[in-house]
Amino acid sequence: MKNDGYRYISKPVERVDGMHIAMGGPVYADDLAPADCLVIKLLRSPYPSAAVSSIDVAAARKMEGVAAVYTWEDTQIQCTTGFDYCKYDHTLLTRVARYQGDPVAMVVAEDLKTAERAIARIRVKWEVYEPLTDPEEALDSEKVVHGDQLGKIIRHGELKDPETDYHPERNQIARVKYDFDDVDAAFAESEVVVETRITTQQQAHAMLESHRTFAYIDRRDKLVIVGSLQSSFAVQRTVAVALGIDSREIIVTKAQVGGGFGGKDMIIPELFTAFATYRLRRPTKIIFTRQESLADTGTRHATIFDMKMGADKEGNITGIDSTLIMDGGAYSDYSFDVILTGIFNAYPLFPRTKAMRFNHLGVMTNKVLGCPLRGMGATQNLFALNRAISQISGKLDMDISEIFLKNIGMEGDTHPLLNGNLPEDPRVINSSSLSRCITRAKELIDWDTTYRKQKNNGNIVRGIGMSVASHASSVARDDRGAVNVTFNSDGSFTVFTGHADIGTGSDTGIIQIVAEVLQMPMKYIHIKAACTDTSPHDNGTYASSNIYRTGGAAKKAAEKMKGMLIENGRRLMGLPDEAEIEYGEKGFYAPATKEFLSIPDFARKMVSYWHGREQLVASESFACDVAPSPYIACVAEVEVDKMTGTVNLLQCISVVDCGTVINSNLARVQVDGGTAQSIGMCLYERFPYVSDGRLAKTNFQSYKIPSQMDIPKIRTELLPSFEHTGPFGAKGIGEIAANAAAPAIADAVFNATGVHVNSLPITPEKMFRALWESEKGSVLS
Questions:
Q1: Which of 464, 554, 687, 779 has its CA 20 to 30 A from that of 285?
Q2: Stretch 741-755: mean pLDDT, rounded?
Q3: What beta strand segments (E) does 535-646 contain?
Q4: Each residue of 221-275: pLDDT tens digit?
Q5: Residue 699, pLDDT above cutoff 90
Q6: How far is the C-alpha of 527 from the C-alpha of 495, rounded, in Å?
């Protein structure tokens, strides 16, 4: 039920841990690691495709201070860096390197210097092969990325081969196909049809804290893993399968996470510390360098879209035909998920388009593996969708905002690919203020007086553009959150949850939700998160799920706790069951008797022998039957120098529907951060490869992310709707902004220059060539 009189909800509450982190409090994994931790370093392949013909580790093993040196001969462990349902097509250490950075040996030493010196003493002779770097050429190539181990790959979990269409012998990771209505007939009846190739690049997560973890054996002989991670329970299961031990012998705890963006859903450092500690029975830790986190863990999937779209003369989209080749890199891991999620989180944005055809394919190459990155496939699909609509807009000479308003989903609309939709149990859009977001974004940039009215200043031209985007909150018919709320003997409350705050401030949001229900000051509500030994199960932090899924469970648990408090308050005050009682921050008041019982006195009585009957613990789960979408309308203004091809972003404005806003400060920060990442994807970031397939750039001096000087005037407005399935009407917000700025900038470039550049990033070289080609009567796409 809507309520504008909230005490904590929709307020700009400061993060509960903000000051402690800002003052350098010891909360991160390396701060917490035991002083006697052994240090792990990895020897990685310098080649994207090579086999070790010989390796000599004798000198390294003889070094003082070296506890162990391992190669693939010592481990024989088949594993995955994804969740346990993924294909186990990695080996912990490999003889055959499938990407530049694949680990072939591991040193465990008393300190970092010794470990680095030992790595330098390992002698390797390589048999170097020509790598597969083009995903289109890799499919059905004579060279097979996993040709040496096709019979060894383990297929665990629920995603079976017929469902994913996994064929490593063809270098095929997965294929997803859908066909709705007669697409060819829709195109035949369309006023305009556009066909274009759209490409997006690999992108790094670029989180502040690199991947890191430590492990030790506790007093109960349990293997304890503590790390900067997004999914404690997934780590527990995946490590257990890899080591071949009972998951009940493993405890996983999340430390403070210095940013994840999906990259720390990759179970990578945890495998090495778990193995070494389990073997040596000593604490170990591994801290990835910036180069390792940037180039050796995972990136956003590069994609090649062949997009065909039709529309009638009024701008109604009549048909979509999308073919995708996605570069999954050297291993399969999450690629199927990214393909599927990309479709589900993008195309239902336009539910009136009935004729749709999809053939989306993931392919293995000799590159670092593709993995989740904020937007999880929707980012690439929404860029392609928005670019096609921009071209439709140009051909019809029609305002793109009017095309959006004609085609976006409204409350009550349905779509066959809407998250959680089943033919026998269809889902509908419960909440959306996207049309109002579009209208407001236009107002903020003075759209009606500046759209397609180029501002020319010699070689400098200006233009504005727009995009719309969506993204689900959680994963429907799959995700479940759980929360326990306990009432403590001092009158405070503790929230136990398995979710991971990865820097977003979700711990604060969940405390706000509990505080609102219990009408209790936030300082009296504590949170304990993401330890498999003490937390209720949570799938992990992904899919913009924390506030919707875990917040939903927290609200239910707090409501149950409130009922328990009132019931026991009435009992302790000696009132009959039906007696009126008022509950609030201070305690309990009985109007009939004028009696008052304070919270501290209530707490003391509840733990006494004479009065206490039970420990008050409220446990609740929240099953995600639906996955409601937040929405965003983004407008951008650019300036293009036609002499150099330089694109200068002048302003970027986002108007967002995330349902009820739980914390306005944190919500705006999330949108601003996602916008910055989208700007980087659009204009700056790329992984260039040299002729032999090796990476040319592996650090932030050369891999360019936008700095403060590159971020223009950014403005974010929140335009709420009310999602009745979410806590207090809330939806997710974490990923939505990463999907919007890039296509808005690309549309603005078109409106400034009349040229479509459909290959990211839009570098000065690409822009200049596109302008040069357009003068000859062709358009670079």
A1: 687
A2: 97
A3: 582-583, 587-590, 595-598, 617-623, 631-641
A4: 999 999 999 999 999 999 999 999 999 999 999 999 999 999 999 999 999 999 9
A5: no
A6: 5
Assign 481 a pLDDT band (cuts: 50, 70, 90): very high
Cα distance between residue 617 and residue 486, in whole Å: 4
DSSP label of 210: P
Q: Count CB atoms within 10 A of the CB of residue 90.
A: 27
- For Cα atoms 518, 523, 527, give the angle at the middle one, nearest 5 degrees: 80
Residue 471: CB atoms within 10 A of its CB come to 34
The DSSP element (H or E) to which 557 belongs, if any, is: helix 551-572
Q: How far is CA 587 from CA 51, 497, 518, 731, in A?
A: 70, 26, 11, 32
Distance between CA atoms of 139 and 168, rounded to whole angstroms? Answer: 10
pLDDT in tens, 613-638: 789 999 999 999 999 999 999 999 99
Per-residue pLDDT at 163: 72
From residue 625, give the alpha-carbon distance in Å to each of 126, 191, 337, 545, 628.
52, 39, 18, 13, 10
Tokens read off for 51: 């086999």
Two tokens at 58? 């004798």
Q: Tokens in use for 232? A: 């404690």
The 10 Å CB-count burial string (b at 16+, else e) for 632-668 is: bbbbbbbbbbbeebebebebbbbbbbbbbbbbebbbb
Cα distance between residue 552 and residue 380, in whole Å: 29
Secondary structure of residue 404 in the 3-state scheme? helix
The predicted model scores a pTM of 0.96
Q: Map residue 275 onto helix, strand or coil.
A: helix
d(CA 38, CA 109): 5
Residue 781 has pLDDT above 50, yes or no: no
pLDDT digits (tens, 9 = 90+) for 75-89: 999 999 999 889 999
Contact predicate 236/51, CB 8 Å: no
What does the pLDDT look like over 409-426, one tens digit per residue? 999 999 999 988 998 999
Give pLDDT tens digits for 72-130.
999 999 999 999 889 999 999 999 999 999 999 999 999 999 999 999 999 999 999 99
Using CA atoms in the order 731, 735, 738, 740, what is the torsion angle rounded to 10 degrees?
Answer: -30
CA 452 vs CA 397, 400, 667, 672: distances in Å: 10, 10, 32, 26
CA distances to 61, 136, 197, 239, 242 from 336, rounded to whole Å, are 40, 17, 22, 21, 21
